Amino acid sequence: MAALSEEVLLVVKRVRQRKQDGTLYLMAERIAWGPEGKDRFTVSHLYADIRCQKISPDGKAKIQLQLVLHTGESTTFHFANDSSALKDREATKELLQQLLPKFKKKANKELEEKNRMLQEDPVLFQLYKDLVVSQVISAEEFWANRLSMLSVEGSVGNNKQDVGISAAFLADIRPQTDGCNGLRYNLTADIIESIFRTYPAVKQKYAENVPHNLTEKEFWTRFFQSHYFHRDRINTGMQDIFSECAKQDEKGLKSMVVQGVKNPMVDLLSLEDKSLDEGYGSKVAPSTSNSKPTVKENSNSAIIKRFNHHSSMVLAAGLKKGDGANDQASETSSTDGNSRDSDFFQPPIKKVKLQEAIEYEDLQSGSGPRMVALNLKKSDRYAHGPVPLQSHQYSTTQDIITAVNCIQHEMAGYKPCLTQVMSSNAVSSAIAALSPGGVLMQTSTQQTMNQLVPSDVQGELKQLYTAAGELLRHFWTCFPVNTPFLEEKVVKMRSNLERFQMAKLRPFQEKIQRQYLSTNITGHLEDMLQAAYNKFHAWQTRRMMRKT
Amino acid sequence: MASEDEVSLLVIVLDVNPIWWGQQTQRQPEFTLSKCLDAVMVMGNSHLIMTRTNKLAIIASTCQESHFLFPSKHWSAGDGTGDDSVSAGGDGKYELLSVANDFMAEEIRALVARMEVKDQADTLLAGALAKALCYIHRLSKQLAAGQDMTSRILVIKAAEDCALQYMNFMNVIFAAQKQGVLIDACVLDSDSGLLQQACDITGGLYLKIPQRVALTQYLLWVFLPDSEERAQLVLPPSVHVDYRAACFCHRNLIEIGYVCSVCLSIFCNFSPICTTCETAFKIPLPLLKAKKKKVKPVT
To answer: What Rg value do the Cα atoms of chain A yield, rounded?
Structure first.
């Protein structure tokens, strides 16, 4: 029974599907079709499942709409209403066009993530191919563990950093001469955004005037024409929508100066712009209050003020909105008119900063964690090497005495006789032993496993190990089996292991047998699988016994 | 063309354990200490005549001491006048060699003559190796500017390993590795695990000789070339070294064991108290499930 609580967006009568007449309903989250006369829907697809829609070409007699799902299936609807078939189809198509993109992103995102993961990690991809494509385990099991990784990565990716504002964004808008005494300014969306973020007053004006009074183009033309933008911001009293902005900016600048800097170690007021004139500062500088500020000085100070204001606005806009608001609030609260309050706050902050600057943690004689002294009773054990405690050839004292005497007797009359050091027989047998193939050279003919087995076989073996490892990991994490879910999983994993052995391991073994490789390189894999089977068997018998 | 700048030093450490050699003389009279010394002399001479700048040292190691057979205290290479007591062999031999041989013979005779009968039956091999390293170190400091010295130690081992010298041995081996000194081993009787490790760690050659009579041939074939030349030659391959540790209780070589986390002593069986540092340990037993009570049907 169709859920009546769903919001129905469009109903189209006389739509045939598979040669049956019926009605097509487009709801908020799905599209459904029910045959004529019946109440229930035979076809229902969520928008999220639909990959795309197709329509039959205009010239054709049949007016059709086809929905292709992600899984590859497709459903075709034939609009059979004689009078309004085309209109119906267009209406349906447009509605779907609006709805599908909304749901598309959610479904695709997961698939995209999975694809991305598979592409980035070749080992994972190989594992996927080995296990899922050859149907050893199903795709859901494969992704069950890894979806946790998916979500983590997704959240990391979402926290994108906001792009900051370039300090030179206004200067980057290089005007190009238009040929006849005009200037072209190229404004991109980025620049517009930067302007809005830096000068909230301009944003306000924009919101007020566009699109009611001015078009966007006119607004920006006026903006660039206004003296607000240009260097010399002399208020000529013109009816300029931007003259208010200039006044607002002045106010903003003044409030910023009043706020000052939070850092108690920095004292901006003591900085003065004095240069050492004649007399190296000994002469008293003429007081500046008497002299009138010249026009040039005025415009200079205006430019400097503008620069300062611009930089401070760029910085302020660069702060995160949340932090910015908090900072503003705390700053204003601490440096609010109440001077007592601000004085009260200043010393602790300053003190903390001074403390931090003076003290180093590691230089302080802190009492570390209590240690227990090592108490060795038989430390001579360490000095004994890995020589088994066999009984040496026990020589009696008599033997020793005899041996020493013998040696001493022999060496008493020792004269080197270097011309008769050895016999030629001995030498030739020694040479034979040392030549390749001789007694002493035997081990060098043994090649390592590395050299005997061809590299593609080695690669396959590595893949087998990865796949087997993955399956065995799933199997062994099921123990101890506490919940019914784990019980099912254990049984399933055992069948998976068997399937793996049949599908992957046996063919590999046969292949290497055909290549006459006598070394047993799959022995260890078989041992691991056998251990898993034994464990499963033991667990199963125990379970049987407990049940009976 | 040998350049003046490359000096190659060979130090031969000879194991002169009187008990082993005395028994050897009785077992196999064809190969006695004299023969062994002859072989060593041939090896030394060969090394000296390979290149003019080659240097040689021979240390004999007994149960009581380790003594330099060559160069001895009376030896001074630049001594032109020479002692009258030392005479050239008269057979036209290169004088350096004949004088060296005479010195060696004299020293070994004196050494054997002053041997005493003692309880200790183990060769002081670690001490001899340490002396060799010190000698190498001294000579490396005496090099002229611009000269390079490569050195190696050849150990000719007769008696068995002494377990008590293990620590000293390992220290010597690591010191040699740091200094870049190769340790080669020529073993006459039974395989020595310590020397196998030494050769493996420092990059030298280990060889157990099947025929003691042909010792000279083995020495010249395998141990005479220095490390650069060895790369070009086909020599006996390296043996597989057994690096297994021995458990502290039985001194069996084990592959898997229990290690005390406090004192790092190795045991083959679990014991609740480590006997070295007396720390108590517990192994957590697997948790037993509470048995479900069976409800008997009331009839």
So the answer is: 44
Say which range, A371-380, A423-432, B46-55, B239-248, has the weakest mean pLDDT.
Answer: A371-380
Percent of chain A topping pLDDT 90: 2
Mutate to test the interface with A, among B14, B122, B277 (most CBs of A within 10 A): B277
Cβ distance of B194 and A444 shorter than 8 Å: no
Phi-psi region of A18 (alpha: psi -120 to 50; beta: other; left: phi over 0): left
- Which positions 130-189 of B are in contact with A (Cβ < 8 Å)? 160-161, 163-167, 169-170
**Coil, helix or strand for B84?**
coil
Of A381, A422, A444, the CB nearest to B213: A422
- Give the residue among A219, A402, A112 at the shortest CA–CA distance from B20: A402
Residues in CB range of A63: below 8 A, 6 or more apart:
A56, A78, A79, A85, A86, A89
* A538 in contact with chain B, both atoms CB, cutoff 8 A: no
Residue B181 · residue B153 · CB < 8 Å: yes
**Percentages helix, strand, coil for chain B, rounded to the nearest 5?**
35, 15, 45
Distance of CA B24 to the CA centre of its chain: 20
Give the mean model confidence (pLDDT) for residues B119-125: 85
Contacts of residue B90, Cβ cutoff 8 Å, sequence gap at least 6? none
Residue by residue, DSSP assigns A263-316 as -TT--GGG-------TTTT-SPPPPTTTSPPPHHHHHHHHHHHHHHHHHHHHHH
Residue corresponding to tokens 């490790």: B197
Chain B CA closest to residue A431? B217
Our CA dihedral for B110, B111, B115, B119, rounded to 10 degrees, sits at 180
Task: Say yes or no for a CB contact (<8 Å) between A434 and B161.
Answer: no
d(CA B14, CA B62): 9
Task: Determine how β-strand A20-27 pairs with β-strand A176-177.
Answer: unpaired
